[in-house]
Task: structure prediction
Amino acid sequence: MVTSDCLFCRIVAGEIPATVVHETATTLAFRDIDPKAPVHVLVIPKAHHADVSALAGADPGLAGEVLATVAAVVAAEGVAASGYRLIFNSGPDGGQEVFHAHGHILAGAPIGPMVSR
Ligand code: AMP
Result:
């Protein structure tokens, strides 16, 4: 389902441009518009699910396809061996801003402490 008020659904629909780095029948990976690391790629299911819990609950197979796309992206970006951080911000305390499930791949340099206090 495409929701017209969802930014990432609009990227999937081609209504908003994005720098796509990998695409499958069910997933899309594109560069974050405001990168926080030398490599900052967002991986999403093409179908709309509000967050990763909703995605996993509704369609665990698709959640697995998102993770397979993460693996393909880190290989293509040449950071599989050097490492990366995968973040799914969820809900208000998680700092989620776009309510279409997405994983952030951060890589290309040491990403630093997991959280700052
Ligand atoms: P989150 O805070 O986890 O919901 O992350 C949303 C991410 O989407 C942020 O890192 C934004 O920089 C990114 N973002 C917002 N608009 C776009 C866009 N048009 N293309 C690519 N990334 C975007």
In short: The pocket of adenosine monophosphate is lined by residues 7, 16, 18, 30, 32-34, 42, 89, 95-98 (CB under 6 Å).
